């Protein structure tokens, strides 16, 4: 017996399709259109095929920005994941201390990105900033405005301070989902704290850590406001990451064609790395079962 077909369901789906088309598909198609044209004026456009893609793929500035971006993203993942998990492990599990701790840990996440950059801009100053003055008192000639290494480390520490709470909250939620029976069985067996973490908690955190890695990686790959406010991409190009380079190309130089081609390459790079991370972590999780 054939099932009746009810076309009224399309009326429920249509608003979602319209919103997705307006917010994602249409802008993406516009970028694709720009990427194969040379925009000379409002009514003057020349079809150039894949010329802009070839240009951006051989751009040494893009290669430098991509390398800095990859190193930065891997560095913040290496720092934020263990710090976030460690913080989640020491947070209280019950009572008012648990609620208070979660609120305090979440505070950096509530600060707007441009304010974060301003906070660290003042904090790192050698004349009035608490961090800069403290480092000078220790005999360290710290100056993030003129020293590339200092600028790079300041951006790194700023991102770790801002986003480690997100990893901690995800890990904390994962730890709360571990059944008490697991801990009771481990206590009966006389398992050490390390053994409980290694064989009970860490495997159970696999799912939330995968989400944390993907969220932080994708977000770090699009970082713009904080380093722009803090260092403006300098000194030199030491803290110019992909998003800032793209903004310079599109807004500063008004090279819409190359900027559009670079946007598509940028999108595919994020997609590729996210797929690699997701596949690798899933494969490791399956092997551990």
Automatic annotation (TrEMBL):
Its main location: membrane. Keywords: Membrane, Transmembrane, Transmembrane helix, Transport. InterPro entries: MetI-like (IPR000515), MetI-like_sf (IPR035906), Sugar_ABC_transporter (IPR052730). Pfam families: BPD_transp_1. The keyword Transcription regulation does not apply. It is a multi-pass membrane protein. The keyword Transmembrane applies. It comes from the Bacteria. It comes from Pendulispora rubella. This is Sugar ABC transporter permease. The chain crosses the membrane at residues 9-32, 70-90, 102-123, 151-175, 196-218, 259-280. Residues 66-277 form the ABC transmembrane type-1 domain. It is found in: Cell membrane. Belongs to the binding-protein-dependent transport system permease family. The lineage of its organism: Bacteria, Pseudomonadati, Myxococcota, Myxococcia, Myxococcales.
